[in-house]
Amino acid sequence: MILARGKRGQNAASRVQKVFQRSPCFRPLRDKYGNRLGEFLEGRVEVIDGDARKPLFGISEPLLDLVLEQLDAVVHVAGSPISTVTLVTRCR
User: Fold this and answer.
1) Lower CB density within 10 Å: C or N end of the chain?
2) Is 47 helix (H, G, I), strand (E, B) or coil?
């Protein structure tokens, strides 16, 4: 699961897709799967539209509970880690 927020007319899924298409860290996957990368990721990655700046990350409490049940790690790649601390605290 990836929590992402939309930006400048793009929804969260589009932003994440762009990262997979452009980021150097995903080059090995792009090299291996080529045009099928989206198909490969579709069954493995779920994008949740949220916002780390908002309470409960801008998602509903039931969805947050589902995320926490399946959460293995938190990787924060945005500008402010404040909400991440809240999530990690809640997971304990």
Assistant:
1) C
2) strand
Ordered mean pLDDT values, 10 residues apiece, the chain (92 residues): 86 88 88 91 87 87 88 68 49 48
Tokens, residue 29: 């996957």
Burial 13-41 (b: 16+ CB within 10 A, else e): bebbbeebeeeeeeeeeeeeeeeebeeeb
Answer for the pair 90, 68: CB distance below 8 angstroms, yes or no: yes
Which structure tokens are listed for 55?
A: 């309470």
Segments making up each domain of the chain, as ranges = 1-49, 52-92
